[in-house]
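ugh ok fine here u go
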Amino acid sequence: MHELTPKDIVKYLLDLGYTQNQIAKLTGVPQSTISRLLAGIHTNPRISTVRSLEKLLYTAIVR
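structure:
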């Protein structure tokens, strides 16, 4: 089974129509961190960052 990376989660959220700023606002993760995740610069984020992104993705899918 393929595990989603934080970068995958952000890409999926963007595909669902969220902007980087919206993701940042809804998760409390700085937009600069979202950008660095997408660029592959930030490859080892904090667990709290990953959990926040996972929660938003879950909410977006369940809606």
